[in-house]
Design goal:
The chain is an all-alpha fold and about 270 residues long. The protein has eleven helices and no strands. Helices cover about 70% and strands about 0% of the residues.
Length: about 270
């Protein structure tokens, strides 16, 4: 069940335990991105692999990202019990690795099958973590907060001394998320007549495509196969699990202290 505590507008500071939780969340959300870890794994800058990707495939990844996110929104929550419990990150890592092994065995040609499957698994894991942090996964707001995770955890051109990559993306998505939340509360996941949902999916898919492109580039390494495909998918799952844990810690603290108090504390730790 979602934490029902109301923010205290007079609270100037977070409790010590919550400050530590927020510091952990910030570390998870602002640490080196997926591209750096993939580059370390393949032994060369991932940008070299991206440059070798055919333009047609890069375009296809954009379509795959959108379709995969739509499917994940529709199906992932249905496979989870909504009663509170601890998250099961290991289970999702195993499932993601199996999915990646299958994709790696077929190389880039397997992405059309592997990406939608792995995206559903990632969304399921994100919701699993959200539930463990006190979210009600039946609620539209939680579903959209889970969707946001696919846009987080990357570099942001708006990142500077006064901002963070995490808050820059949340600010970018905020109005559309709010509009989409109202639509989901009224009409569910039906896409027809839902411009806010269409816009939000397009915005998130554009950022998710960047990470899918990095993943595809990793699979261009000579000799790539099932084992390497499993490792890359494990890195992919680890990345989104870490980002989702940070994101839902922040949201849990926002329910307790209010968004502005948490934001000030988060940015003050820079």
């Amino acid at each position: 069940m979602m934490d029902q505590a109301h923010p205290d507008p007079e609270a100037a500071e977070l409790a010590p335990d919550d400050l530590r939780a927020l510091a952990e969340a910030r570390e998870l959300l602002e640490r080196s991105g997926l591209a750096i870890r993939l580059s370390n794994f393949v032994g060369s800058p991932i940008e070299k692999g991206i440059a070798r990707l055919p333009a047609m495939l890069r375009d296809k990844l954009g379509i795959l990202a959108r379709v995969a996110l739509e499917r994940a929104m529709e199906t992932a929550a249905k496979t989870l019990d909504d009663s509170p419990r601890a998250a099961s990150p290991r289970l999702h890592k195993v499932l993601g690795s199996v999915s990646g092994a299958g994709g790696g065995a077929f190389g880039l040609a397997g992405l059309s099958v592997e990406v939608p499957l792995s995206t559903v698994l990632i969304m399921r894991s994100i919701l699993d973590i959200a539930r463990a942090e006190g979210e009600d996964i039946r609620q539209p707001e939680t579903r959209l907060a889970a969707l946001e995770v696919f846009a987080l955890g990357g570099n942001s051109s708006a990142d500077d001394a006064a901002e963070s990559a995490y808050y820059a993306v949340r600010t970018l998505l905020a109005q559309t998320v709010s509009e989409a939340t109202r639509h989901l509360a009224q009409k569910g996941l039906a896409q027809e007549g839902a411009p806010a949902m269409v816009r939000l999916l397009a915005m998130v898919a554009a950022r998710y495509k960047v990470q899918l492109t990095q993943k595809a580039a990793g699979m261009l390494v000579p000799g790539i196969g099932a084992a390497a495909g499993a490792t890359i998918n494990l890195m992919f799952m680890n990345h989104f699990q870490a980002v989702s844990r940070g994101h839902f810690i922040v949201r849990r603290l926002e329910r307790r202290y209010g968004e502005e108090a948490v934001r000030r504390a988060y940015l003050g730790a820079r």
